Amino acid sequence: GLTRHLHKLAGRTRQPFRDPSKDAVSGTCHISMYRQEAVRDAFRHAWKGYKAFAWGHDELQPLSKSYSEWFGLGLTIIDALDTMWILELREEFEEARRWVATELSFNRNVDVNLFESTIRILGGLLSTYHLTGDPLFLSKAEDMGSRLMPAFNTPSKIPYSDVNIGRGTAHPPHWTSDSTVAEVTSIQLEFRELSRLTQQPQYQAAVAQVMERVHVLEGKLDGLVPMFINTNSGQFTHQGVYTLGARADSYYEYLLKQWIQGGRKEDQLLEDYLQAIEGVKKNLLQRSSPTGLTFVGELSHGQFSPKMDHLVCFLPGVLALGAHNGLPADHMDLAKELMKTCYQMYVQMETGLSPEIVHFNMYEGSSRDMDVKLADRHNLLRPETVESLFYLYRLTKDPVYQDWGFQILQNFNKYAKVPSGGYTSINNVRDPEFPSPRDKMESFFLGETLKYLYLLFSEDPNLISLDRYVFNTEAHPLPIWTSAE
Predict the structure, then answer these.
(1) With contact defined as beta carbons under 8 Å apart, do 31 and 17 qualify?
(2) Where does the record say this protein resides (predicted)?
(3) What DSSP character marks residue 446?
(4) What is the number of structural domains in the chain?
(5) 331 part of a folded domain
(6) Distance between CA atoms of 182 and 180, rounded to whole angstroms?
(7) How does pLDDT run across 298-309, given as a tens digit for each residue?
(8) Residues labelled as active-site residues
(9) Which residue range is the domain that position 201 belongs to?
């Protein structure tokens, strides 16, 4: 009804929707409601495909009307639980809850990735428990958490990457005894919270040991960490390569967020975070040519590479959140500059959707700011840019961030929406005629991307307040601990 009503309004004035910043307050409110409803429509469409063709399985393959399994644990359902609650899709939520109550069992002979199952399954269950107060989700979270603990049985206490949750065994990947630094340092929010809720200290103790170990390790550059760490020796390996993209990204995010989660008392985490941001500024920040976009590159054995993963677009949001928690104001300035760059990674593509990786031009006389290699032209429906847009809007109230987010949602609808239900990743963001769909809807599209879009369009600062909750790296909100605890 709202959409029809808005169309009537638009028809009466013979004008399309305008930039809400130029509207009266009531107009802004209408537009926000309209945009939030557009997100709910997108969720319903995605859910329709999942229900019809992939129910109870990990991920929907919307084109072949089938599914793919990763862990075989209904990953999309668990990842989307709190999104449905926040979007007030109660019918869908109840259906999902019934599945969790009657079908979800972790007693299975299956290997799961410690990091992915912690952030998606453990994080999703804990967050849903907090939002609903329903003990079902806490008991499932505790079951999962206890089954992940064998990962920490290593000579160095740096966890293995893979756990068999039925057998209680763990091992590194077949090709190496290394774990990824981001993976072992981005499970802390969830395990710490599990300890707090269950009054069982072993979960927090296991992940705290990892942070303490990484804190003192040799091989950092101005607070920046290498990408791999050995589970036997507990030392960094493949040293000399520094990135804020894949394999290192969420280490930095969780330094800040653990400090916030714990009530801003753990100085070591804060020191490591502040040092790392200075390291980014000193070693990885550059400007592109011709328009001078600020970007975060990579360093490999002293050589700077102007390569930036879409994953790095988590950084503007984290910087803004830090500034909101009393960290230096120039963190917010940098957040705004990088936010603009991440938006340009969408705008400068023919589909208006960002590729997985861009290379920025730094040479005078470049005709465009960024190039995209053929192998990097895919878009996986990733959340990082809309995640940062949410933080920037929530903390600055500048409506331009909402406008940017709505454009991105419209382009998902234009190039990634599958008529029979669901959304698909695409292979080529530079070809609007044939973006070359990949036939996969990642669980994070429902767990993160649509949730952050909905929150971005909300005018209610208390809808998952940033002073009461901290989001894990899969967009699952967990409570900030009050001093009484």
Answers:
(1) yes
(2) Endoplasmic reticulum membrane
(3) I
(4) 1
(5) yes
(6) 6
(7) 999 999 999 999
(8) 116, 249, 356, 384
(9) 20-479
